[in-house]
Amino acid sequence: INNSDADLATISVVNVLGSKVLDLGTKQVLTNGIKKIDISTLPKGVYFLNIVVATRTQSLRFVKK
Asked: Which of 10, 11, 14, 53 could disulfide-link to 24, CB 3.0 to 4.6 Å?
């Protein structure tokens, strides 16, 4: 998420059934920053990374092989 301010973001990972499998809580989002998320404990499958900043929400689909 491009962010001109250093807003706080709520970050979570959900499975295809909509169950939250990782809750990263509230983190500071930096412009052009990179945030690494450890998904090593998740089984193989399809997931969605949900990021909420202020009133904006972004959901990114990814596959763990």
From this structure: 11
